[in-house]
Design a protein that fits this description.
This protein has 344 residues and is of the alpha/beta class. Helices cover 32% and strands 15% of the residues. The longest helix is centred in the C-terminal third of the chain and has 18 residues, at 251-268.
Length: 344
Amino acid sequence: MKIGHFDLLNDGVFIIAELSANHGGDLEIAKETIRAAKRAGANAIKLQTYTPDTITIDCQKPDFQIKGTIWDGKTLYELYQNAYLPWEWHQPLFETAREESLICFSSPFDKTAVDFLESLDVPAYKIASFEITDIPLIEYVASKQKPVIISTGIATEADIALAVETCRLQGNNQIVLLKTSSQYPADISDANLLMIPDLARRFDVLSGLSDHTGGELAPVVATALGAKVIEKHLILNKNIDSPDAGFSLDEREFKKMVDAVRQTEKALGKVDYDLSEKAQQSRRFARSLYVVKDIPEGTTITEELVRSIRPGFGLHPKYLNEVIGKKVNRDLEKGTRFSLEYIK
């Protein structure tokens, strides 16, 4: 599966910098955040495409009041009015991403957003965690036959199965499921990263992590568990007026995370029982059979005369029991690599 020029199966972990509301209402901040994402080593920048009116309604009733989050005291409409990315900014932000050779795509929150993003030729779509139950939206997104990345933070197994089935009924099997903790910020104890390989196995898809914890620990563990995608919020400056600032990484922190993920990839390597050149060189320090005392011709070999010692240039130690009790057919000097040729 490819997103733009990036092959999710062969090019390593696909690292997404999430802009979200971290533009602070300033187009130039948004552009510079994209440049920071490139400097920090991200593969992609992701936007969110909605308006307050496409995601909710302006209503003061209790159902629309936010409770139990860092945004308490606001209505949903007020939150999204503060956070949304103006649609007229998308084109210049996509251009900035192209200039930086960054893949740029977005999370749509209704069909009009999908149509708008299609006009920008997005290479993929992201379904946000709280939209996983919006089956008509997922159906419409999947019909565009582009990769669909779906966060699963609030989803039951049945919700996930229905979302995946909806994509497949559209003939779209380009699906990535992201383990997500839909708390902002999220506690590391709620990460449940063992879900990452289970999502891949259970639903026969690629899987990864959308992370709202602090630091790089969760992304590193996710990489070790086989994550193909990691998404993390990036903010240019934590003093920016953004509802997402509290769970976003700045450029330095984001780069530290990227570096840790790439080091983890190197450490994981591949399954390969053939010895590398370095391992072959080190093998000379392995054990092998050596003559450890001068042995006159005709002498019976004992464990005091031939032993398994370092280095590894002599006969394999597995032959020790076979040569003990045999006689040598020549004089052998201490330090000689033992060989089966020396047995009568």
